[in-house]
Amino acid sequence: xxxxxxxxxxxxxxxxxxxxxxxxxxxxxxxxxxxxxxxxxxxxxxxxxxxxxxxxxxxxxxxxxxxxxxxxxxxxxxxxxxxxxxxxxxxxxxxxxxxxxxxxxxxxxxxxxxxxxxxxxxxxxxxxxxxxxxxxxxxxxxxxxxxxxxxxxxxxxxxxxxxxxxxxxxxxxxxxxxxxxxxxxxxxxxxxxxxxxxxxxxxxxxxxxxxxxxxxxxxxxxxxxxxxxxxxxxxxxxxxxxxxxxxxxxxxxxxxxxxxxxxxxxxxxxxxxxxxxxxxxxxxxxxxxxxxxxxxxxxxxxxxxxxxxxxxxxxxxxxxxxxxxxxxxxxxxxxxxxxxxxxxxxxxxxxxxxxxxxxxxxxxxxxxxxxxxxxxxxxxxxxxxxxxxxxxxxxxxxxxxxxxxxxxxxxxxxxxxxxxxxxxxxxxxxxxxxxxxxxxxxxxxxxxxxxxxxxxxxxxxxxxxxxxxxxxxxxxxxxxxxxxxxxxxxxxxxxxxxxxxxxxxxxxxxxxxxxxxxxxxxxxxxxxxxxxxxxxxxxxxxxxxxxxxxxxxxxxxxxxxxxxxxxxxxxxxxxxx
Length: 577
Known about the structure:
alpha+beta, Beta-Lactamase, Heat Shock Protein 90, flat
């Protein structure tokens, strides 16, 4: 029973804390929402005032226009009408009129049904020597208009006439209609005259009340209250208006209106709800953990005697399981190491496979210079005995050339067969292809394959590893030779293209590729099972090597053979000043 009271007390505290957090968070969110709404309201008000000011300044500037003075003859009236029409078209004004002291229309950009505007509030204000303004509804079109009237003074300072500019309010408010917040402008009589929500137009505010009522006077759901310094409206005025909104106002004496905005407070409620939910969840989770810990401690105390008898057996079982787990970990580590060695061996196997195919020719290439060196050495000895030093020197020079050739062959073979991972850097792609061609030269001659390769005069630098790139091109050349082994005409063409990326194409006139989608899969080969020609690893290894350089390799059929394209990133040469 005591535990139940403790739980109920804890839940009550959590409830009070949640309410407090929600209230505080809601007020903070309303303050932030109020700042944003105030800025949006000022922006909308400034936008409206700025647009209306254009027509105000137009009235002031046009009041003393020379073409609008006098207007005693019909010709003067026609000239004035042309000027007014041109200005109205350029400023999007509904109408511009010149009135005499009695309010009669002397000239207008558009025809006016009312020939006299003596009772117009803006005209009466202008006749007092001040700038007049007024708003209303055009009886002809039914459009809302805002008028500015500027006096025209005579030589003695008296008001001789008035120029009135009429602006269409709908055109003015078109630029900000449909914005997120509901903004409306209420005139001195409490009527909504301008708004970005057409549903609110001509709604009225009854004196002494906060809300608005429709023009027909029907009752609408409305309630106003304050949360701190923020006025909140609860309303149901249509689907385009929030049901619960923050209400802000801003006086605009320039246009004799009050700007008001309604901002949906649902985001503030959601934010406060999330904060309160988070605090409640944390408190409940902490209480649950504390309760569970207490219950567990009690249960552990009760079960301590039973557990003590099971600890020994469980410990023994865990010891056995731990030993088996350690053994399994060792086995997995050994398996991962073996897999890594196997992957490295596969790359090396690709090199050795290519070397195996070229071994007989390489032996011939090394044996031939050795025999030539022996012959030139014997000749050089004979020439020295006869005193022909120049001939002996010529033979020694040939021996040096043969030795350099053998050193180059051995260097390429040793670098190609080396089982190590060289760092990537700037590599001369022309030299790489030359080395690959030289390594495959013996097999090309043995298989009577014509190789077409015209290296550029200048080096072309790519990003990669020299030895591994040589292996890629040796694999591509050997694969092309294998593909053409059963045909008479054998031809391989290597081309280097220098574009945004470097491209090297190896093209043959063989039978083509049977299954291009499986081309770079490991152990995929079209050769006979058990064949000594390869295991299907060459292209897979080449694909992995080129990918490691940030490049790409692809193969395709040309209709007269196959073509492999190797793409590599170029290394730009710096200009020497």
